[in-house]
Amino acid sequence: MIDDLDRRILGALQKNNRLSFSELADFVGSSAASCMRRVNKLRAEGVVTADISLVDPKALGKSLTVVVAVELDRERLDLVDDFKRAMRAAKEVTQCYMITGDADFVLIVAVEDVEAFDVFVKTKLYTNPNVRKFKSMIVLDRVKFEPRVLV
User: Which residues make beta-bridge pairs with 97?
Assistant: First the structure.
């Protein structure tokens, strides 16, 4: 069971997971030993799933972000699993969500430019016989980006 202190710890870690346990303790109003025990428990229980560094795609030359809504032709479990596997393997796809509504999946694609996106479309979408159609939306401005759950 996650209590209020766990929530404060998680909130602090989502902002900066490089805090020392002493700094974390000061931030959440607890002791360093308590924070260390709780963080280790949250990791062991799978509440904290990864400690990662977020990288600005532009710093790596990926200046174009495209949101792609994909509709599959058939929704057989094996074909859906094949599509999921293909999107996990596609280096251009930074996020992939199976969704409800008009589309079956939403992809976030980060590439160098329009030409690179064209290559992605031709090699990953047009070649997939189960992709019925897709809709691409080029991101003009990232207004908000918080890859965290607000606790």
Answer: 106
* Predicted local distance difference test score (pLDDT) of residue 150: 65
Q: Which residues of the chain have pLDDT under 50?
A: none
Q: What share of the chain in percent tops pLDDT 90?
A: 85
pTM greater than the 0.85 cutoff: no
Taking the C-alpha atoms of residue 111 and residue 117, their distance in angstroms, rounded to an integer, is 6
Whether the CB-CB separation of 69 and 103 falls below 8 Å is answered with yes
Q: Order the strands of the 105-111 sheet from edge to edge.
A: 93-98, 105-111, 64-72, 131-138
67-97 exposure pattern, b = at least 16 Cβ within 10 A, e = fewer: ebbbbbeeeeeeebeebeebbeebebbeebe
- Cα angle at 50 between 63 and 1, to 5 degrees? 135
Secondary structure class of 77 (helix, strand, coil): helix
Q: How far is residue 114's CA from residue 123's CA, in Å, rounded to a whole number?
A: 14
